[in-house]
Amino acid sequence: INTIGVLTSGGDAPGMNAAIRAVVRMGLAKGKRVMGIRKGYNGLINEDIIDMNARSVSDIIQRGGTILYTARCQDFFTIEGQTKGANICRKYGIDGLVIIGGDGSFKGAAALSELGINTIGVPGTIDLDINCTDYTIGFDTAVNTAMEAIDKIRDTSTSHERCSVVEVMGRHAGYIALWCGICNGSEDVLLPEKGKISTKQIINNIIANRKKGKKHHLIIVAEGVGGTEKLAREIEEKTGIETRATILGHLQRGGSPSAVDRMHASMMGAYAVDLLCEGKSNRVVAYKDGKYVDFDIEEGRNMIKVIDDRKFQVSQILDKYTL
Ligand code: ATP
């Protein structure tokens, strides 16, 4: 490998900058030329490519977002788009490419690898929804952001003796919701992985809690379950308790990355460069059972990950105290 390219793709996540920095600095330390590709696969196809040196990544480890920008790219779903991408890599001498992004971005990486460009995927998404890894860059910061926001909602909800229904991100996965369920001590948490809890059951729970003297009732809804506004309206109609819906939205994707995110991003970025220098391709970096490892992209995508049942059980038990 002579020249390493790096790009961020799909949804952004705090810590992506730390990963870019690690790829650039580790690449340079190994005597490679490093190029940044802006705006994901779009930037590759449009030749939005810049030279990176050690200074290009100064003062970014603490910043949210991604200095390389990110995008979704329709053209890359086609063989023509992928071939164009591979040819542009060759034109710039990029023989190794690190793709920081989610599952969709790794499919693009696998396609480029088929076309002769060595590619390595680094898991970057707040959703934690990449099957082969216990950790994805951005999750810890996003959970902390959501948790702090929900603490604030809880303050005002308690003062007014209201019920709050808060929706957190996660796409089709409920990891952020499950963590907030425990860390915010919510009364209920609705996860896509756990099927639907009936509105009637939720309402009965609220009424029972009111009778016990609870001043607030906090329900966390995962994005993959949705229906947050409707649920809030139904609760208010059926219980007479003032109920507010809050959809936290994109604030969960921003902010300075936590130490956990900076650490994983730095280690995974460095690992990706090691793999390229060993001549590997079509691999995804993962954190599994406390170690950094790598898998074939296809093999990694076909692995199965299940949400932690014990955490869900504990959240339910701790939420339903009987004083
Ligand atoms: P996140 O889940 O955090 O949003 P992601 O990487 O899964 O990240 P996607 O929108 O699924 O986000 O994918 C990002 C980009 O990767 C797409 O816009 C497209 O350019 C490329 N991509 C996705 N799927 C494929 C595929 N099957 N073949 C080639 N390229 C793909």
TrEMBL record:
**Annotated Gene3D superfamilies:** 3.40.50.450, Phosphofructokinase domain (3.40.50.460)
> What positions does the entry give for ATP binding?
G11, R72, C73, G102, D103, G104, S105
Q: Which residues form the Phosphofructokinase domain?
A: 4-276
**InterPro entries attached to this UniProt entry:** ATP_PFK, ATP_PFK_prok-type, PFKA_ATP_prok, Phosphofructokinase_CS, Phosphofructokinase_dom, PKF_sf
Alphabetical UniProt keywords: Allosteric enzyme, ATP-binding, Cytoplasm, Glycolysis, Kinase, Magnesium, Metal-binding, Nucleotide-binding, Transferase
Q: Which cofactor does it need?
A: Mg(2+)
Looking at the UniProt entry, the stretches that span the membrane are none
| Record localization | Cytoplasm
Residue positions binding Mg(2+): D103
**What is the catalytic activity of this protein?**
beta-D-fructose 6-phosphate + ATP = beta-D-fructose 1,6-bisphosphate + ADP + H(+)
The biological process GO terms on file are: canonical glycolysis; fructose 1,6-bisphosphate metabolic process; fructose 6-phosphate metabolic process
Question: Which residues catalyse the reaction?
Answer: D127
Which of this chain's residues are annotated to bind substrate? T125, I126, D127, R162, M169, G170, R171, E223, R244, H250, L251, Q252, R253
The entry marks the following residues as binding ADP, namely R21, A22, V23, V24, R25, R154, G185, S186, E187, K212, K214, K215, H216
Pathway(s) where this gene product acts: Carbohydrate degradation; glycolysis; D-glyceraldehyde 3-phosphate and glycerone phosphate from D-glucose: step 3/4
A GO cellular component annotated for this chain's UniProt record is:
6-phosphofructokinase complex
What is known about regulation of its activity? Allosterically activated by ADP and other diphosphonucleosides, and allosterically inhibited by phosphoenolpyruvate.
Q: What is its EC number?
A: 2.7.1.11
Spell out the molecular function terms from Gene Ontology: 6-phosphofructokinase activity; AMP binding; ATP binding; fructose-6-phosphate binding; identical protein binding; metal ion binding; monosaccharide binding
Highest taxon of source: Bacteria
Q: Which PANTHER family match?
A: ATP-DEPENDENT 6-PHOSPHOFRUCTOKINASE, PHOSPHOFRUCTOKINASE
**NCBIfam families membership:** PFKA_ATP, PRK03202.1
Quaternary structure and interacting proteins, as annotated: Homotetramer.
Q: What family name appears in the similarity comment?
A: Belongs to the phosphofructokinase type A (PFKA) family. ATP-dependent PFK group I subfamily. Prokaryotic clade 'B1' sub-subfamily.
Give the matching HAMAP family. Answer: Phosphofructokinase_I_B1 (MF_00339)
Query: What protein name applies here?
Result: ATP-dependent 6-phosphofructokinase
